[in-house]
Amino acid sequence: MSNSLSKLLHYLTFLKKHRKKLYNESNKYWALRNALDEHSIETYFQPILCLRTGQTLGFEILNRPVNINAFTNTEEFYDFVGKSGEVFSIETFIRRLSFKRIADQANAEPFYNQKMIFINVHPQVLADPSYRTGETLEILTNYNFKPEQIVLELTEKEAVTDYAQFVKVIQHYKQQGFRIALDDAGTGYNSLKTILYVKPDFIKLDKSLIRGIHSQITQQHLVRLLLDYAHNSGTKVIAEGIETNDELIYLQKAGVHIGQGYHLGKPLPTLLNGSLPQYGLQNVSLLKTKLKTVNRR
Ligand SMILES: [Ca+2]
Ligand SMILES: [Ca+2]
């Protein structure tokens, strides 16, 4: 067999093997391009609650293209944006859109106007030296939000390469009044390093740490470790992806401050407070009594 024929056969085998993957990737790419061209992004708001009182403290803004066939969820969309090579322009576009959409609702309803707004930010964007740090502030002023209401959620799925620049930009944001959350903690490249350098206001525990936590000792140890750190450094811990009552009750008992997940409130296109299911609330009062008994010993 000639060399070129053998190469062709190799290529065809490769194509066959990766056809589905390539098809999915190109589907995502066009969904992304299309979404930005037509401004056809859907925005959802998921409530974030105090696990002690049940009060809704704020909302995480979640975006994804209307073409849901290409992306199964917001996270997948967001990961794809990170790898697209166009993260900078897409992020700016989505950030403006997010603030506009939440402002449309929050400004009409003073009750929601004071809530915290959690937005997802790719660390690469902040680490880029050409990033204009004043831009977000300008957008906020246009929509009557204060920087203190805004929590920038930084995920670490893509490793940060220029750490010094990254930390410098974060300090700049903090000085402007913004708050910082480390997103998906427990899954990233350098979670502990980032926690130490960035000193976030919030640590968001990834859903993989929360799933079944009531019966998973290793997950419990890691969560307790982060809670200890948080307790000593004035950081608040947010448990993401709470889906069952068992998980909720465990987290309440462990002293996790804040929670988010389908069990407390689904992402919706309109702003709607979440709630602790009644059983969870009853357990908090039971728990308080139990804790008092334990403390007295
Ligand atoms: Ca997030
Ligand atoms: Ca997350």
UniProtKB/TrEMBL annotation:
UniProt xrefs under Pfam families: EAL
Gene3D superfamilies membership: EAL domain (3.20.20.450)
Domain EAL: 25-281
SMART domains linked: EAL
Name the UniProt record assigns to this protein: EAL domain-containing protein
Origin organism lineage: Bacteria, Bacillati, Bacillota, Bacilli, Bacillales
